[in-house]
Design a protein that fits this description.
Blueprint: H1 15-23, E1 29-33, H2 40-45, E2 50-53, H3 57-65, E3 77-80, H4 87-98, E4 105-109, E5 125-129, E6 145-146, H5 147-150, H6 166-175, H7 186-207, H8 215-227, H9 235-243, H10 252-264, H11 295-301, H12 306-310, H13 324-343, E7 347-352, E8 359-365, E9 371-376, H14 388-397, E10 401-408, E11 414-415, E12 421-424, E13 428-429
Parallel strand pairs: 1-4, 1-5, 2-3, 3-4, 6-13, 9-10, 10-12
Antiparallel strand pairs: 7-8, 8-9, 11-12
Helix pairs in contact: 1-13, 6-11, 7-11, 8-9, 8-11
Amino acid sequence: MSRTIHRMPHYKTRVVDSELDALLPHLPALSLEGPKGVGKTATASERGRTFRRLDDPAELEVIKAQPSRLIEGPPPIVIDEWQRYPASWDVVRRAVDADGSAGRFLLTGSATPTEKPTHSGAGRIVPVRMRPLTLMERGVGDPSVSLTRLLTGERPDLGGSTALTLEDYTREIVVGGFPGMRHPDGRAQRAALDGYLARIVDTDLPELGIDVRNPATMWRWVRAFAAATATNTSYDKIRNAATGGEDDKPAKTTTMGYREALERLWILDDLEAWAPTRNHLQRLVAAPKHHLADPALAVRLLGLEAGALLSGQGPSSIPRDGTFLGSLFESLAAQGARVYAQAAEATVAHLRTMGGEREVDLIVVRGDGRVVALEVKLSATIEERDVRHLRWLHGQLGDDLLDAIVLTTGPSAYRRADGIGVVPLGLLGP
């Protein structure tokens, strides 16, 4: 099946569009997954000819009475918020088994339902992840450095400049990348994020059948998790931080339940540790680095604003190297790198040795296991100590290190004499 996609005039193209445009003409069903508010419905609607909106109670009631209606109509059929009726997954899977024609279904989901489908859909329904807006998608960044090209190992010349300052990056961290919550008025923007967070406990979790018996305890844990942004702090230490040293701590099973529930809503977005397969690097930390779906959620959960972050304020409950703003900047960089890496059919992880002597913030892994290393620095200038871990990694990996880049808040992209690239975050793109 081949069909030209005509974007609506108001639609702002997303990085994931290129992936969907490449896959949908060749696969029978895709599932566009990610947290509420990232724009899944708008993106899916650009492709659909038939729409089933399961967050509409009236339409959901009709579908439950006659499930076959889900797959009736000209394709592509968009089934929006499919998790509201988990059986819809199996209906689509059986339809694909009966007719594997390409471009038939595009499902969107903001949660993994409690009532799991009877079949995983493997080989029939292909998942595609969607995250909040990158700087480029916000119209803030103007990329001149392609992550896809860095992954070729060509070590291209680097150039381009940006007017983005530390204050600009901080503002983007605070405002966030949810399309419908980017308000120019600070109070409106804060209210939108507060409402988004409140909905998680008041509506989203109950819809998944999860009863939060003590919301205050849950919110303390979530705030502690936010304070652990861009660290690999253990979950036990996060639990301790959530209770402020109280003897009567919530049971581990309780806090693990919070974690699992928020993962199912795509609110937690941990960055896994790198497990290399092409070399003999040993004694690497296996724990993930903690990130929320958007660093703006962490800022809001902790009641911080741009001025406070710029003055060095941040939570003291979780130990970290550097400022909390530095951790949030790393989280913003991780968010963008994951979107761009996905477009290049690559994945992103982090590297840290067991003793913490060596650490590289982002390891972008190509399909054959070779990597691009990205170090993130909240600085406009780079010194020798800022590249020492990248130099060490090159000594360990040799040609398996395709490129090494430091992402900064500076004005210009360039290569140092040692070959390491320096790229302002706003200049990195797919």
